[in-house]
Amino acid sequence: MRILDGLAASLLGAALTLSLPSAASAQGEPSWQACIGATSTPDDRVSACSSVIDARAETGRKLAAAFCNRGHGLTEKRDLDAALADLNEAIRLDPAYPCAHTNRGRVYAIKRDLDRAMADYDEALRIDPGFALAYNNRGDAWAGRGDLERALTDFNAAIKHDPALAIAYGNRGYLHYRKRDMARAIEDYSVQIRLRPDVLAYINRGNAWHDSEQLDRAAADYAEVIRLAPTDVRGWRNRGMIRLYKGDNKGGLADYDKAVQYDPADVFSWNNRGQAKLRLGDKAGAIADFRKALELRPDLSTARASLQQLGVTP
Q: Which residue, among 110, 106, 136, has the nearest Cα to 119 in the 3D structure?
């Protein structure tokens, strides 16, 4: 009876950039600060940038920046059509504004219109050949097209131009993971975590530790996911898998209890909790979990085989 790993390395994707024009009359105003502030929530950014735009006091690049940053907030809210309208306006006001081209490219990338996304990233880099984030985002688009070598070239360029751009290390780490070069993947994920730790970085490094058969280190990274995001099923599910691999069936069961609590549709966790229960002598509980896994995914051969081995009709 087999444990399902359910692991998936994830590309971090591209990122948006805030537009920060040079100082001008509005820069000290609260609405302007919230419009351009790196810590503003998407809702606050949209509201603040709208105030700047509606005041009709700015022109040129300052007005373009307000539209660009409102487009940033709308993209984060996944109001993509409204974001696209704002970014189009930012580019109309200032065609040589690389941040606006990069952010519009991100909207196109989310819409899976990679040709337009690439065109915008190319234009941003034509205007500013040292724009690290545009290289990162174009690398994301190349990866989306399946061209991993060009993606790697762009991620390398992003890191060259901005060695502190954490997302570029994460994305390059993903490409190394895809190529099964775990040592380089772990190295890049580790730099990303040092620069800007987040849940996905720990998940991805944990997966690379797992595939390198360094289970204690994998478990430590999944534990950090649980600490940072206690309701994220991936931390519980992945650590539970490691615990079952190591024979800690009670610990694995406890983790999978949490996993199915936070995501009742997680077929991997139902299957693996069934394995934990079976190992602990709870045959009835195991049968119920395998049946739940099959209910969620009728073609799940491992759950079907487990039930058949128990002499139970799936």
A: 106
CB 148 within 8 A of CB 11: no
Could you tell me which residue, 5 or 221, shows the higher pLDDT? 221
- Specify whether the CB–CB gap between 46 and 70 falls below 8 A: yes
SS3 51: helix
Closest by CA to 12, choosing from 155, 122, 118, is: 155
- Looking at residue 219, its pLDDT comes to 97
Q: Cα(165)–Cα(248) distance, rounded to whole angstroms?
A: 39
Q: Which of 236, 244, 314, 232 is nearest to 277 (CA)?
A: 244
Sign of the CA dihedral with 275 first, then 276, 282, and 288 last: negative
Which whole number is the average pLDDT over 72-88? 93
CB 161 within 8 A of CB 191: no
Q: What is the pTM of this model?
A: 0.86
Please state the φ and ψ torsions of residue 163, each to the nearest 5 degrees.
Answer: -65, -10
> What CA–CA distances, in Å, run from 18 to 40, 103, 126, 282?
11, 9, 19, 54
